[in-house]
Structures are given as structure tokens and as C-alpha cells.
Amino acid sequence: MSASFKGKVALVTGSTSGIGLAIARAYAAEGAVICINGFGDAAAIEKERSGIEKDFGVKAIYSGADMSKGDQTQAMVTDAIKQLGAVDILVNNAGIQFVSPVEELPPEKWEQILAINLSSAFYASRAAIPGMKAKKWGRIINTASAHALIASPFKSAYVAAKHGIAGFTKTVALETATFGITANAICPGYVWTPLVEKQIPDTMAARGLTREQVINDVLLHAQPTKQFVTVDEVAALAVYLASDMARSITGAIISIDGGWTAA
Predict the structure, then answer these.
(1) Which residue has the higher pLDDT, 206 or 120?
(2) How far is CA 18 from CA 75, 101, 172, 174, 204, in A?
(3) Cα separation of 162 and 117, whole Å?
(4) Is residue 215 classed as helix, strand or coil in its secondary structure?
(5) Would you state the pLDDT for residue 85?
(6) Where are the domains of the chain?
């Protein structure tokens, strides 16, 4: 599939590693100018930013905006438009996880997860949509989760946020349908990323299981393929959804979960 994004600008939140980085690199491979965002070691982030420029011959900038802060999220989009001329493709991918029974979930964790996983998509979309409407072209892709469709125990904040992303995506799709803009949500099952790897110890503690039991009996238990989804598979779907061939796909909540939500 060829989906040339030459002349387009893509901003991907939470893209210094994992799914977000794979999506940013996939867009760059198709010619898009890139803005990455996220936390991490400064040298490692610079290596990824410069690597995009070196590997694909496109301009790439980095924003260290904190996605838990609405003002920073909006400012990131505004600054990207000033520096790069537009934000044509917005991928709201930033996310965090915390595993805990409801009654033991720290309120600050609830607020943080909703802010980063849900509210940041609102603030970024709010800032990007006017420019997309003016150009009569735009793509908003939200990284949701199988947990946008079903629940799992000990993940109340995450499940609530991802269900919220599904509803937000549908609403934005309806509001922008006549402006050449699409809004869709990708719902991965378990993808082997730093986010998933970091929640294994917490799940071990919450459920009294070994690492191997968490991987096989919890993470992959629900996926009939018994395989992790790869970041490149998710990125390929994100490329398609941003292409002109996907112009009639909007308001869709698309599973890529090894059959998890088929049951």
C-alpha cells in the first residue's frame, strides 16, 4: 500500500517509544514531516528524532509538552503549526496505566490517567481542528484499546478513559464529517511495549502470579492468536486510516487485538 504523505505534517503524542514511535516512523517513511512528543531520556529522544530525519529525509521536531496539562497540550499543537505550517494528521496516542483494585486506586492516579489518556485527546483535537477545517482535510487517529470495548479487573481508570476515547472519537467524526476530516480510534489488544512490560510487576502483585503466568494467563489469555500485536501492525493501520483511500472511514472503533473482542 502506498499512502504518500509528502507535504503533510503529522503530530503523534506519546511517540518517544512503543506504538507512537512506530506510527511516527511509518508516517515519515511516507514522506510526512513529524512532531514527536513524550517523556524519557533526552539523549535517547534526540536519537529517535534525528533518526527519523536521517532515515527518511524529512524534518522532525520534538515537543516535551506534558499531556496531563491541557494548556501544554494545546500549546504543543499551536507551536507545531507555527514551526511546520500545519498539523494535518493528529495521533492522540499518549497513555499510562496503573493496576489496582478500585478501593485502593489513589485518586491522583485516577486523575492522571484520565488527563493523559482522555483529556489530552480533547485538548489536542480542539487546537488542531480549526486548521484542518480551513484546509478541508485532516485526520485524527486516537489510540484506544480493546479496553475501549470491554473491561478487565483492576484497570478502572484506564478502562473508563478508553471507553471515553471511543465516545469522543465518534462525536468528533460527526462534527467534522463535511470538512474532509476523519476521526477514528484504533483498539489494540496487548502490544509488547514498555507500557505493557511495566505493568507486569503490578499485575503479579495484584493477582499473586509469576511473570510467566501474567504473560500467558492474563495478557495473552484473552487473545485467541496467543501472540502479542506488534507495533508495526498498529502503525500500518494508522497509515491506512490517514490515507485518502480511507476517506470514508470515520467514527470507526477498529479492533486490532488478535480476536480478543470477537468473543
Answers:
(1) 120
(2) 24, 26, 26, 30, 22
(3) 7
(4) helix
(5) 98
(6) 9-188+230-254
d(CA 94, CA 143): 8
Predicted confidence (pLDDT) per residue in 170-216, tens digit:
999 999 999 999 999 999 999 988 778 888 998 899 899 999 999 99
Region 107-136: mean pLDDT is 98
Grid look-up 518517544 returns 16
Residue 111: what residue type? Answer: E
CA dihedral sign, ordered 61, 94, 215, 145: negative
* Residue burial 170-195, b: 16+ Cβ < 10 Å; e: rest: bebbeebeeeebbbbbbbbbbbebee
Fold of 9-188+230-254: Rossmann fold (3.40.50)
Binning pLDDT at 50, 70 and 90, where does residue 2 land? Answer: low
SS3 51: helix
Please state whether beta strands 253-256 and 89-92 pair in parallel, antiparallel, or not at all (unpaired).
unpaired
Distance in angstroms (rounded) separating the CA atoms of residues 83 and 25: 19
Cell 503490578 sits on residue: 202
Q: What's the pTM?
A: 0.93
Q: How many helices (H) and strands (E) does the chain have?
A: 9, 7
Enumerate the active-site residues.
158
Q: Determine the average pLDDT of the residues in 225-240.
A: 96
Give per-residue pLDDT as tens, 66-90: 999 999 999 999 999 999 999 999 9
